[in-house]
Design a protein that fits this description.
It contains six helices and six strands, in the order H-H-H-E-E-E-H-E-E-H-E-H. The strands form two sheets. Strands 3-6-4-5 form a four-stranded antiparallel β-sheet, with helices on both faces. It has a two-stranded antiparallel sheet with strand order 1-2. The N and C termini lie far apart (42 Å). 24% of the residues are buried. It is 41% helix and 26% strand. It is an alpha+beta fold.
Length: 170
C-alpha cells in the first residue's frame, strides 16, 4: 500500500470510528511501526484534518472533506461499475444503507476508496459470502460518499446521473 493510500485509509477509519483508535491498533492494521503512524497523523494534521490525540487513541474532530448522500438504484451486475466510477473520480464510498418499512434504517460501513477495495467487495458478493443490502428494497439504496471537494462530489453525481444510477429527487 502506498503512503497516500494508507493515509486515506487512516482518515476513513478515524471518520468511521465510534471510539478512539490507538496508534498500536493502526500500526497493526497497516503492518507498519507506531512511529510511522505518528508521522502519518502529523502530516494529516498539517493538511487540515483535526485529529485529537487522547490517552485512548486518535479521534477525528473535524474533517475538511466534503460529504454527500446519493440515492441510487441499479442491478447487481452494475454494482462494480457504480463503485468503480465513484472511486475513480476521487470519492470514498463510506457506507450503504436502505430504509426498510419494518426495520427502519439498515446500514453497513464500506470505506471503499480504491480499485482494490472494489475488487475485494465484489469478490465477497460473488462468492456468496454476502448479498447486497439493495436486494431488501428492490434495488434502491443510499451511499454516503466523501471527497476532497464539493466539485468532486458534483462530478460523481453527474456521472451517476448519466449512467442512470441516480434516483431523481421527487
Amino acid at each position: 500500500m502506498k503512503v497516500a493510500e494508507r493515509r486515506k485509509a487512516i482518515v476513513n477509519l478515524l471518520l468511521s470510528a465510534k471510539e478512539p483508535i490507538s496508534g498500536g491498533e493502526l500500526a497493526q492494521t497497516f503492518n507498519i511501526s507506531r512511529q510511522i503512524i505518528v508521522q502519518d497523523i502529523t502530516v494529516l494534521k498539517g493538511t487540515g484534518y483535526e485529529i485529537l490525540s487522547t490517552s485512548q487513541g486518535y479521534v477525528m474532530q473535524k474533517s475538511p472533506l466534503a460529504e454527500r448522500v446519493f440515492k441510487v438504484k441499479h442491478t447487481t451486475d452494475q454494482t462494480e461499475d457504480e463503485l468503480s466510477l465513484i472511486v475513480s473520480l476521487g470519492g470514498t464510498v463510506v457506507n450503504v444503507f436502505v430504509w426498510h418499512k419494518v426495520y427502519g434504517k439498515i446500514e453497513a460501513t464500506l470505506n471503499i476508496f480504491s480499485p482494490l477495495h472494489v475488487k475485494q467487495f465484489m469478490e465477497g458478493v460473488r462468492t456468496g459470502q454476502s448479498t447486497e443490502l439493495m436486494h431488501v428494497t428492490g434495488g434502491y439504496h443510499y451511499h454516503t460518499v466523501r471527497a476532497e471537494s464539493k466539485d468532486v462530489l458534483d462530478r460523481i453525481e453527474g456521472v451517476l446521473k448519466n449512467k442512470g444510477y441516480l434516483v431523481p429527487e421527487i
